[in-house]
Amino acid sequence: MELHQLRYFLAVVDEGSFSAAAQAVRISQSGVSTQIQKLERELGVSLIDRSPRRVTLTPAGRALLPAIRSVLTAVAQVSATAHDLRGLVVGSLRIGTVTGLAWPRLVDALAALHTRHPGVDLRLHEGNSDDLVAGVRDGRLDIAVAGWAGEPPPGLPSRIVIDDALVAIVAPGHRWADRAAVDPGELGVVDLIALPAGTGARTALDAVLARAGAAADPRWEVSAPATVRMLAARDLGVGVLSATTCAGWDDVVALPIDDPLARSRFGLLWSARPGRAARALLQQLDPDL
């Protein structure tokens, strides 16, 4: 059994196809397939069900996946420790962010790390907050910039960057536009415009409605805050976002929600044992970490 075979197998799992895995590990698709077949023969089990449309894990593949991730994580830790002793920062760093994130501090930190440590292979992935948290937990990501409601996800180191009130946004001509605040229960009986489940603002909205005895059933479920803005500005419903997200928008009215717990939190999450490259990026983002 060779380490590169384990890496190729993990690349297929994480990338979702042999062709994408081949691009990620920079060898031919046939090379990836051949090495995984050799691994399967040596282990005596089939790891991957191959079909023209998609690649899925066999029961044996699912059972062995955590162990394979652990092996490769341990090998990476050995390399990271050796580089620490030599004072170098190299290796790979996998960062996840919420879709559509516009956070200059992160981009500046990535640029600074790339300039100071060009040997680090930086990879950036976008997704919803639930998926990003899961990615840090299972080792697919080293650092995530995600949102949540209430307490930070348990079991992971974290740092809150923004603790923000949730607001309802409406068109200037909407019947609520002149109000001082919105009652949480009212959000359950209007045409809601919301981000998808798994995002920080949506998790906070669901919690608000649950406390009010209502359920979230958005008429408009969209992936980007900009789309929430456009729909609300045209009086197609009531949007719900964090106050910071819609700060400065002059074509909608932002109304406080009458619930002190209606807050969306945004922050950093990282693995319990961050490598040197991850620590370097975290310190760029927050010198106190």
From TrEMBL:
InterPro entries: HTH-type_LysR_regulators, LysR_HTH_N, LysR_subst-bd, WH-like_DNA-bd_sf, WH_DNA-bd_sf. PROSITE patterns: HTH_LYSR (PS50931). Pfam families: HTH_1, LysR_substrate. The keyword Transcription applies. One of its GO terms (molecular function) is DNA binding. GO terms for cellular component: cytosol. Keywords: DNA-binding, Transcription, Transcription regulation. It comes from the Bacteria. Residues 1-58 form the HTH lysR-type domain. Belongs to the LysR transcriptional regulatory family. This is Transcriptional regulator, LysR family. It comes from Nakamurella multipartita (strain ATCC 700099 / DSM 44233 / CIP 104796 / JCM 9543 / NBRC 105858 / Y-104) (Microsphaera multipartita). The lineage of its organism: Bacteria, Bacillati, Actinomycetota, Actinomycetes, Nakamurellales.
